[in-house]
Amino acid sequence: MESSRPSTSTGDVRIVNAYNPNPPDPGLNIDDLLKLVTLNKEVLLCGDFNLTHPRRSGIRCVSPNAKARQLCDGTEAAGMRCMLKPGTITYTRGDPAAVPNTPSPTIDLVFAGRALISRVIGCDVVEVRGFESDHRVLRTVINSQLHREDGTRKLWKNVQTKKFRQDARERLGALGLPPLHSPAALEEFIDAVTEAMQASIAKFVPILMPPSITGPVRKFEESIHVSLKLEEAARRNCTLQNNDDKLYNKWQFLRRQTDKLVKQMSKMSYRDFVESSTEITAGTYGLARVGARWDLAQPRVHMPDLKDPMTHEVCSTPQDKVRCLTNSIWPKTSTGPTAPAQNCPPLDPARMQYSSPQQLDWGEICELIFGIPSGKAEGPDGTAREALKMLHVSRDEKETESERESIIAPILEHIINACFLLSHHPAQFKRSRTVIVEKAGKPTYDTPKNWRPLALLSCMGKVVEKAMSNRLTILSLEHSLVPYNQFGFARRSTTKALELILNRVYRCWNASPRMFATLMTIDMTGAFDHVDREVLLKILVRKGVPDWMVLYISSFLSDRRVALSIPGYTSEEFWVNIGIPQGTPLSPVLFALFSSLILDELNKIWPSSPFFQVMSYVDDTCMVVTSHSYEENCKILTTAFTDLIAATAPSGISLGPSKTHIMHFQNPHKETQGTNSRTANEPEPPRIIPLADLPDVGVEGAKKEEVIKLLGVYLDQSLTWATHVKKITEKMEAKMRTIYRISGSTWGPSLASIRRLYITSVRPIAAYAAPVWFLYRDNERRIRWQISANLVMKLDKAQAVCLRQVAGAYQTTANPVVHQELDVPPLSLFLEKLGQKHRTRNLDTREYARLTTVWATDNMPKTLSAANNIAHPYRILYKVTAAFIDFAARKQLIEINEERATKTDRRGFPLPKLRWRNFLDRQQVRSKVINDKLQEACTRYWQNYLDDREDRRKNQTDPNFRIANHRPLSLSEKWGPASLKYYAELTRAESTMLFHCRTGVVGLKSYLFSIKVRDIVDDLCPCKQGKHTVEHVFIHCPALLAERTRLYLQVDHHDLKKLLTCDSKAAAAWAIRYLSIEQFGWTGRQTPDKIFQNRDGA
C-alpha cells in the first residue's frame, strides 16, 4: 500500500493505492487497508485487488471469496462507494486491445469516501496509446482545487525599457530628495520609493504565470495526425479480426512509425528552440543552466514529515514543520508586536577608534549598482535587481544625454548617506522571506539538518549593506582587525588558506631528523545563525570600530523579521533574536570579526611557530601540527581542541563532533629505516602506514581519514593529488554532459559560444585552487613532491575530450590539433600560468611573508644538507617565479613605456608612464610577461607535435598510413587565435564541417579507410579518379564538377586554402550540401542549392 495526501481547497485528501498479488505471494491485509482508508472521510482508494464480487463484476462473478466479501462489506460499512459501473471490464487476459469472447472480471476498482462521493465527476476506462497491459487505465475526475503556492515570474527581458524608465522617472522625480533627519523620515521615504517602483513594475513588466496542472495541449503536424489515423484504423482492424498476426504486426509497425515521427518532430522543435534561444551569449548561459537542472532531482512539492531532533516527535502539519525547522535553525525567536530589546555595549568617547567615511565617495554609488548580480530572486518588497539596473545609466543612443542619466543612483545615494549619518538600518530592509530547500545528495529528508535556509532580502537593502561591508572590510584589512589566519572575505582566498596549511606540511617533510604532520578539520554547527549579537558588538567596540558603525550594525542586527517558506506553505512573520542573517553582503565580514576572537585566543595560547598552525575559513577551522611522532601530534591536537572548545563556549558556538576529521600526512619519499640502510644512488622506497595502525586523537567522534575534502580540495595522505584529479575529471565530464544537452555536432549554439562556455564554466573546475596543488615542472626542473606526470597527462586528456565535444570533432582527432584549432592552451600549461600569476600577486603581501617565516632555517631542526634546506616546493616556485618574471617584466616595462611615449589618449595628452613602484602597474607588466610566456610554451607544444608527426611520417613504410598520405591545412598554420575568425559567422553544423575539413579527420573514405572502418574497402572517391580527400572533392572530383563550379563562381577563386579560411562559410555549406556525409545528412537536405549560385545570377 502507498498513500499520499494532496492539500486541496477543502482540506487534505488521502489517496491510497493498493495491490493484492495472486497466490502464492502473500496477499493484501484487508483489515489494515480498511483501518487506513477509514481514518478520514475524504479518501480515494484505488488499485488492483484481484478480487471479484457480483456487486462489482455483475454476472461475470458467481462465487466471491472471503477477501472479496470482506472488502465489499468493509467499504460499504465505512460509507464508501465504488465509482465504477458494475460489470466494467478492467482486465482482459492477453492483448489489451482484444475484445474478450469470454467473461472478464472487474478487479481494478476505485472507491470514494463518504465526503468525497459528491465531488467525483466521473470514473471510467480510458484508452491510452502505447499502454500495453492486461489491465485498463482508470480515470477518476474529482471536482477540487489543489492548494499550492503559485509563484509568478517577471519577464524582465520583455520590458520596454524606454517606457519603463520614463514612467519611473516621473514617479520617482515627484518624490524629490527630501531631508532625512530621523529614522521615521528615512523609512517613510523608502516606502514612497518602493511604492513608486512597484507601480512602474506592475505597469510595464510582464508576468509569467505558472503552468496549469494538465499543461498546454500539444500541437502536432498534419503528417503525425495522418499517421495516428492509420495506426488507429490498423488497431481496430486487428481487434475485429481477433488479433490476426499479420494485422497485429501491421498495427505495431504503424505505431512505431508514429513514434518515430513524434520523436523527430520533438527533436527538431527542441533544436529550433535552442537555436533561437542562443543567438546571444546570455541565452547560451541561461540554457546551459537549464541543462544542468535536468540532472538534478525535481524539487519537492510538499515537505515530508520531519522528526524533531529534540522531542523525537513526528511533525506532519505545515505549522509543526515550520516550528521544528525554526527551533533547529534559530535557538532564540519570538512573536508579538515588537522584538525583545537588544543591548548595545556602552560606547566610551575616549576609547581608541579608527576613522571611516560616513558618506559615499564620488562615483561609489555607480560601482555599487554595477556590482548588483542579475537573475536573483527578489525580496519581500518586490524591487528586483533588474529594476535597479534598468533605472541606472541608459545605453540607448537615441535618448538625450539627460534621459540617459541614472534615475535611481541619486535616490540610493541619498538613502545610504542617511542610513550612515543616522546609524540606522531601515525596518524594510530587515524583513526576509526565508525559503527552505533540500541539501543535495542526502539519503533522507526527514530531519531539519538536511534542509538549508535561503534568505530573500530587499535588493535596495543589499546595496546599503554592500556599502557598509566595503567600509568594514577596508577597515579590517588596513588595521589588521582580523588575524592573519582568518580567511573567507576580501583578499583572503581559498588558495591562500590552503597554501598556509600545506606550507607547514612540506616544511615538515623537508626536515631532518624526520618529522610528521597531522591535520584536524572542525566544522562549527550553525555558525552564522548562532552568533551572540551582544558579543559581536563588544568585539567591534574592542577592536576600535567607530561608534557610528557599531550603532549601525546594532540596528542591522536587531528587530529582524522572518517568514519561513517550506514547499506548499509560508508561515507568519516572527522575530529572530540571534545570529547574523545569511545572504547579506555584510554577513561574511561580520562573522570574520566575530570568529577572530576565537583565533585571537588560540593564537595567544598557541603562538605562531613552525610546529603548529591554525586556520579558519568562515565556519571551517583546521589545525595542522608537526612533531617527531604521530602520537605527539595527537596529544597536541587534543589539547588544542580543548582550548578551542573553551574559546568558543562564551560565544555560544558549538562544534560538530560528527564533522571533525583527522589525517596523518605520510611523506611518500621517506623510508622506514635510517639512511644507512640503502646506497647513495638507491631511490627512497615509499612507505605508507595503514590507516588502522595510525594513532587516534583524543576527541570523541573524530574520525581518521585517508582523504579529506578541505575547502573544496581533496587532500590525500601523501599529497599525490590523485583523488583530487579524479574528482576534477568527473566534474568536468558531468558539466560537459549538461552542455551536450544543448548542443550537438550539427546543431546548437555556435562554436564560439560553446568554446566560451567551456572556458568560463568547465575549465574553472580544474583551475580551482590550482596554485596549491598543481606543483609541476618538466624533467629537467623537477621539484620534490610535485604532481606526477601521469596525473598531468590525465588532466590534459580530460580537456582534450571536452574540446572535441566543443568542436564537434571525431575522437581520433589528435589532442594538439584540437587545442591549436580552438586556441585553447593545454590544461597543464594553463594551470602552470595560474600558479605563476598567483605567486607574482602574492609576492608583495603579508601572506607571502608568513610563508617565508616557515621556510627560515633557524626555526626548524638542523637539516641534513643545504640542498634539503631549499627543497620546499613552494619556496622553489616562488623564488623561480620572482627571479624570472621580474627580470623579464622590468625589460617589458621599458619597452611598454617607449611605446606609450609615442601615443596619446583621447584628449590628446601623452600616456603616463608605468612605474615599477606602483603595485597595479607592476602587476600589469608581470601579467603580460606571464601571458607571453604561456604563448611561447603553447608554440613549443605545437611545434613538438609537428616535428614528432613528421618523424613518424618519414619512418612509415605503409602507403595507406594516414600520416603518409596527406597534410591537413591546420598543420600548416602557427599556434594562435587566427583560426577562430574562420568560424566566427558559421552555424554549428558549418563550423563542425569546417573543423573536419581543416584537420583532415573527416567522414570521407580516405580517412575512414586509414582507420580501418568496417565496410570501407578502399580509399578511392566514388568517382574512382583519386583518393577521397578534402582536396580531391574541392578541386579535382569530376562527379562534383557542376556543383563545384557554382561554388567557384560564388567565391571567385578555386584555391583550397582560401576556401577553408577566407571563404569558410561558403565552403562549409557546400561540403554539407554535396559531400553526402551521413552525419550531416539532415542538415545537407535543408541547405538550399541556390546559395551557391553566382552573385550575378549566372
Written description of the protein model:
With 1098 residues, the chain is α+β, with helices and mostly antiparallel strands. It has 37 helices and 28 strands. Among the domains are: 141 residues, Deoxyribonuclease I, Chain A (4-Layer Sandwich), CATH 3.60.10; 56 residues; 170 residues, EIF_2_alpha (Alpha-Beta Plaits, 2-Layer Sandwich), CATH 3.30.70; 105 residues, no CATH class; 126 residues, no CATH class. Strands 17, 18, 22, 23, 24, 25 and 26 form a 7-stranded mixed sheet that branches. The longest helix is centred in the last third of the chain and has 36 residues. Its main location: mitochondrion. Keywords: Mitochondrion. This is Zinc knuckle. GO terms for molecular function: catalytic activity.
Summarize the structure.
With 1098 residues, this protein is α+β, with helices and mostly antiparallel strands.
Index terms:
mitochondrion; 44% helix; Deoxyribonuclease I, Chain A; 1098 residues; Zinc knuckle; Alpha-Beta Plaits; catalytic activity; Endo/exonu/phosph_ase_sf; disordered C terminus
